[in-house]
Amino acid sequence: MRVVILGSGRGSNAEAILLAQQGGRLGAARVVQILSDKPDAGILALGPRFGVPAKFVDPAPFKTKLEGEGEARFIEAIRECGADLVVLAGFMRVLKPGLLNAFAGKIINLHPSLLPAFPGLDGIGQAFRAGVKETGCTVHYVTLEVDAGRIIEQARVPVETTDTLETLAAKVHAAEHRLLPVVIARLSTTAK
Ligand code: GAR
After folding, report:
1. Among 47, 54, 63, 156, which is least packed by CB within 10 angstroms?
2. What DSSP assignment string belongs to 109-170?
3. Who's near 120: CB < 8 A, 6+ residues apart?
4. Ligand 1 atom 7 nearest Cα
5. Is residue 111 among the annotated active site residues?
6. Residue 117's closest CA among 104, 105, 130, 99?
């Protein structure tokens, strides 16, 4: 299963996926390409480190969504690498029907909360401020409605009374790093 990772940030989840691959823990999945909408994103530096092609794809003209010319460029880049699975790992843009339909049922996203709770931006901060006793992370299929597609798997993280936003964030990220590679490995052996 050929996997393309899309991300906008530091890429710690992409790193977790690549480390799992190096350690033989990614099932039949293989990361063939990393794409970012930010030219200076840390995720792009993982390419040379792990021997995976990594490149910036210009997302213009929109700021927060992927539509029009930028969307067409991403569709082409994903097609070019022959991806069977598109993994959004901190890709901070809303996908629109063009890309969603081009890769229907093949796009998954990682979100830092127990969806359907706290969708959208800053899932960890939202949960922390709401004072919940438990939060976590979710891997789900991507659909037009943001953070609302079918849930594949979740990991739970208890919120301790001593937690600060920083300690909670570290725990949620650690849970993400464990969850996402496991889900990809499983999809690679069950996907038709
Ligand atoms: C992760 O916490 C991921 O859940 C979140 O961005 C972070 C990316 O970190 N995604 C979203 O909030 C999507 N709505 P990373 O670049 O270190 O993998």
Report:
1. 63
2. EEESS-TTSS-SS-HHHHHHHHT-SEEEEEEEE--SSTT-SPEEEEEEEEPPTT--HHHHHH
3. 126, 146, 147
4. 90
5. yes
6. 130
The identity of residue 58, as a single letter, is: D
| b/e 26-58 (16+ beta carbons within 10 angstroms → b) | bbebebbbbbbbeeebbbbebbeebebebeebe
Tens digits of per-residue pLDDT, 94-106?
999 999 999 999 9
CA of 90 to the centre of ligand 1 (A): 4
Give pLDDT, residue 190.
Answer: 86
Which atom of ligand 1 is the closest one to the Cα of 8? Answer: 16
Indicate the top mutation candidate among 8, 12, 44, 178 to test ligand 1's pocket, ranked by most ligand atoms within 8 A of CB.
12
Domain annotation for the chain: domains and CATH numbers: 2-190 (3.40.50.170)
Distance separating alpha carbons of residues 32 and 40, to the nearest angstrom: 20
Tokens of 33: 């390409």
- Of 61, 66, 49, 67, the C-alpha closest to 12 is 49
Q: What's the pLDDT tens digit per position in 36-57?
A: 999 999 999 999 999 999 999 9
Amino acid at residue number 16:
A
